[in-house]
Amino acid sequence: MRVREFRNRQTKEQKPRISSTKSGKTQLYNPRPCRKDNGETMNQLELKYGCNPNQKPSRIFRVGGCLPLEILSGKPGYINFMDALNAWQLVKELKAATGVAAAASFKHVSPAGAAIGLPLSDTLKKIYHVENLCKNCKTGELSPIAAAYARARGADRMSSYGDFCALSDTCDVMTAIMLSGLVSDGIIAPDYDPEALEILKAKRGGNYNIIKIDADYEPQGIEQRSIFGITFEQGRNELQIDQSLLQNIVTANKTIPDSAKTDLLIALITLKYTQSNSVAYAYDGQAIGIGAGQQSRIHCTRLAGNKADNWYLRQSEKVLNLPFLDNLKPADKDNAIDNYIGDEYEDILADGAWQRVFATRPDVFTPEEKQAWLRTMSGISLGSDAFFPFGDNIERAKKSGVSYIAQPGGSVRDDNVIEVCDKYGMAMAFTGVRLFHH
């Protein structure tokens, strides 16, 4: 639809009536036919409140057609839907770009993790807490969609706690079993295996949020939002991210292996749906560190790099062999590990504290030991939603094993950024496209 046609159509729009409910519960106008109001077909879902409890009334609706989704369980809220719809776009694009099942873990309208369904190593199975699930599988391996979510959820487990899950493919039993043991707000997927749906419906006392999205739905090319009573309008970001964006390699090293190209695509597509400014580190089919919503580019790079470092530190022998108490919950293990590998390790190793999680008191993971382990980190890919203004970003990226970079280019200091890349033998592509998201 052309912009002028869209605008003419919008002038005819009148707000649909909201039917209140005595209970105040979420009301869905499905599966009844879409309502007609003043010649426009529409469908809406009344929500309990908006971002905060004082923001009422609240709803989602679509003018000119039905909402492309069904609520199979629960009562998703305003932020749930923001997470779900952004996450769905991300996994749909990841699947299209790579041809592999994809998943995302969203929190507060940015991804905590995103991945494709590559098989997991034994180490990843352990740190993602899916060892027992794999042992109960006939093949000993997770299905591609389950592996994708295990990766997306597992990369930054602290940020993924209480996430909204998005799947590019049908949710199978394996993925449902995994989710049943996790603290999660909900899931969006194009379909659900019957047994998987029953498992998910039993979660949270029957109140787990389950959304089924129409996989064929495509929105209009123009999108709107309102701030302070003023309506903003722009073309939807329909940029297709594929390997053609990685052809302009500006460094002396011109070699980017296929696996790294896939990781760069994962980083860039992840950034497309991350609050800006943002930087993402990726490796082995998944984002391993996402720095979102920072005003400074170097702070994005540091934040994402620190998350990537934590992901790698969790794979060290010292962490893998921590003497946890039997039957300790995964979330408690994650909290303990986060403290143990961080600067505040004394909080978990103090007398009276370590006994709550460990059978015996572990030795300190010294800064020297951590740095020695991190120096073995290599082959990491890095994407940025806008250009790097200074070479300090590259210096920080190098500390987290970055070998391949994709960024728009266009800084007055591009020469300095390229020079630092060449110093470390990195390969960097200028994509020529910015990926701001707000």
Overall geometry: globular
Name given to the CATH architecture of the largest domain: 3-Layer(aba) Sandwich
Structural class: alpha+beta
Biggest sheet strand order reads 5-10-9-8-6-7
Helix content: 25-40%
Global Rg: 23 Å
Q: Which fold name fills CATH's third level, the topology of the largest domain?
A: Cytidine Deaminase, domain 2
Give me the number of helical elements.
Answer: 16
Number of strands: 17
Provide a short characterization of the protein structure.
This protein is α+β, with helices and mostly antiparallel strands and 438 residues long. The protein is 34% helix and 21% strand.
Secondary structure topology:
Layout: H1 3-11, E1 27-28, E2 35-37, E3 40-47, E4 58-63, E5 69-73, H2 78-98, E6 102-107, E7 110-116, H3 122-127, H4 131-135, H5 144-154, H6 157-160, E8 163-167, H7 173-180, E9 184-189, H8 194-201, E10 209-213, E11 222-227, E12 230-235, H9 258-272, E13 279-283, E14 286-291, H10 297-313, H11 317-320, H12 330-341, H13 346-349, H14 367-374, E15 380-384, H15 392-399, E16 402-407, H16 414-423, E17 427-430
Parallel strand pairs: 8-9, 9-10, 15-16, 16-17
Antiparallel strand pairs: 1-3, 2-3, 3-4, 5-10, 6-7, 6-8, 11-12, 13-14, 13-15
